[in-house]
Specification:
With about 350 residues, the chain is α/β, with parallel strands linked by helices. It has a domain of about 210 residues: Rossmann fold (3-Layer(aba) Sandwich), CATH 3.40.50.720. Helix content is about 40%, strand content about 15%. The protein contains 11 helices and 14 strands. Strands 3-2-1-4-5-6-11 form a 7-stranded parallel beta sheet, with helices on both faces. Strand 2, helix 2 and strand 3 form a beta-alpha-beta unit. Helix 1 runs parallel beside helix 2, helix 5 packs parallel to helix 6 and helix 7 packs across helix 11. The protein binds uridine-diphosphate-N-acetylglucosamine. The site of uridine-diphosphate-N-acetylglucosamine has 20 residues, from helix 7 and strand 8.
C-alpha cells in the first residue's frame, strides 16, 4: 500500500506534536507546518529523538495564502489535520480581531489552498466549548451549540464553514473533533504542554505549583452544583486524543463520510480530584485557595463518547493518575519548558 501523506498545521504545539508522533508510528508520511507563535523549534529535535527520523517541517503561518499555496504546489497531500489556532479564552475577549483573523482567516486560507489542489480530507480541531452551558450531561454531539467568547465563536464558526463546504461539495470528507480537556504528556517526558507565561488551564498550573514555581493554586469557585462544589471536567490524556485523530483520519480515508465526534473519556473529575491525583503522582503538596468563580465557567462538562467508541472504534484508555504522572514527568524534566 502506498503511504498516505498528511499535512499537519500547528504541528509543534501540544496536541499537534503528540499526533505527529502517533501518525509516524502508524505509517503515515507527515509534513508539519507551524509559525512557532506558541511553540518552540526544540519540539522538532524532540520528535527526531522519539521517532528516529528527522521530521519534515515547513515554517509558515497558515494565514499566509501564498505560503499555503506553495506548500500544496510543492507536494501532494491526501489529508490535512488543522490544529493551528489561538486558544486562550481570556485573551480572545481582549483581542477578538486577532482570534477571528487567525482562527477563521487561517481556516479559509487553508481550505482554499486544499480545494485548489484537490485535497478534500480534513480533520478540524474543535472544542467542547461549542456546547456553551450544557443543558444535560453527558454531552452528546447533537446537543445545542453556543458560544460565550470570541475563541468559542471561532470554533463554532469554523464548524459551520466546514459543514457548508461539505454541503456545497460532497467531495469533502471532514471530521470535526470536539476535544474536552486535553492534559498529560508523552510518557518519555520529551514533549508536553509548554504554556508561555502564566498557564490559563488547570493542569499546567497545578504542575507548576507542585514544582515550586508558583506558590498556590486558585480554585475558581467552590459553590458549583457538583459533589465537592468545584468545577467538573472531562480530562483526556493527550496520547488518547492523538490516537483519536489517527482513527478519525482513517475513517475519513476509508469511508469518505464526514463526522462530528466528541473526544473525551466520558468521566468527570473535579478541580480537587485533579489536585489530589497530582499530589499522589508527584509526592508533593499543592496548596490551594478558594476564590470566586471565573466568569464564563460552567459547573460540569463531560462527554458522551458513544459515537467515537462505536463509529471510530476509539476509546480513551488512560486514567487521571496516568495523566498526572505523565504531566509531572514532563514538568520535572523540562522545568522551564522548551523555549527557556
Ligand atoms: C478552557 C476554556 C475552553 C477551552 C479549553 C482549552 C474557559 C472558560 N474555557 O476550558 O473554552 O477549550 O480551556 O484548553 O477558559 N481552574 C481553577 N484554577 C485555575 C485554572 C482552572 O480552579 O487556575 C478550574 C476551572 O474553573 C475549571 C477547571 O479548573 O473548573 C478546568 O479549567 P481549564 O483547565 O481552564 O479548562 P476549561 O475551563 O474547562
Amino acid at each position: 500500500m502506498t503511504q498516505m501523506r498528511v499535512l499537519l498545521t500547528g504541528a509543534t504545539g501540544f496536541i499537534g506534536s503528540h499526533t505527529w508522533l502517533n501518525l509516524l508510528a502508524c505509517g503515515f508520511q507527515v509534513v508539519g507546518v507551524d509559525d512557532f507563535s506558541n511553540s518552540s523549534p526544540a519540539v522538532l529535535d524532540r520528535l527526531h529523538q522519539l521517532a528516529g527520523t528527522e521530521p519534515a517541517f515547513i515554517r509558515a503561518d497558515v494565514c499566509d495564502a501564498s505560503a499555503m499555496a506553495a506548500v500544496f504546489s510543492r507536494e501532494r497531500f491526501d489529508a490535512v489535520i488543522h490544529f493551528a489556532a489561538l486558544k486562550a479564552v481570556g485573551e480572545s475577549t481582549e483581542k477578538p480581531l486577532a482570534y477571528y483573523a487567525n482562527n477563521i482567516g487561517g481556516l479559509l486560507t487553508l481550505t482554499q489552498a486544499m480545494a485548489g489542489h484537490e485535497c478534500k480530507t480534513l480533520v478540524f480541531s474543535s472544542s467542547a466549548t461549542v456546547y456553551g452551558k450544557p443543558e444535560s450531561l453527558p454531552i452528546r454531539e447533537d446537543a445545542a451549540l453556543s458560544s460565550t467568547n470570541p475563541y468559542g465563536a471561532t470554533k463554532l464558526m469554523g464548524e459551520t464553514i466546514l459543514r457548508d463546504l461539505g454541503h456545497a461539495d460532497a467531495g469533502w470528507a471532514v471530521a470535526l473533533l470536539r476535544y474536552f480537556n486535553p492534559v498529560g504528556a508523552h510518557e518519555s517526558g520529551l514533549i508536553g504542554e509548554d504554556p508561555r507565561g502564566t498557564p490559563n488551564n488547570l493542569m499546567p498550573f497545578v504542575a507548576q505549583v507542585a514544582a515550586g514555581k508558583r506558590e498556590r493554586l486558585k480554585v475558581f469557585g467552590h459553590d458549583y452544583a457538583t459533589p465537592d462544589g468545584t468545577g467538573v471536567r472531562d480530562y483526556i490524556h493527550v496520547l488518547d486524543l492523538a490516537a483519536g485523530h489517527v482513527d478519525a483520519l482513517n475513517y475519513l480515508l476509508d469511508t469518505r463520510q464526514s463526522i462530528t465526534a466528541n473526544l473525551g473519556t466520558g468521566r468527570g473529575h473535579s478541580v480537587l480530584d485533579v489536585v489530589h491525583a497530582f499530589e499522589r503522582a508527584s509526592g508533593t503538596s499543592v496548596p490551594c485557595d478558594f476564590v470566586a468563580r471565573r466568569p464564563g465557567d460552567v459547573d460540569a462538562s463531560y462527554a458522551d463518547v458513544t459515537l467515537a467508541n462505536t463509529v471510530l472504534g476509539w476509546e480513551a484508555t488512560r486514567d487521571l493518575d496516568t495523566m498526572c504522572a505523565d504531566s509531572w514527568r514532563w514538568q520535572r524534566m523540562n522545568p522551564n519548558g522548551l523555549a527557556g
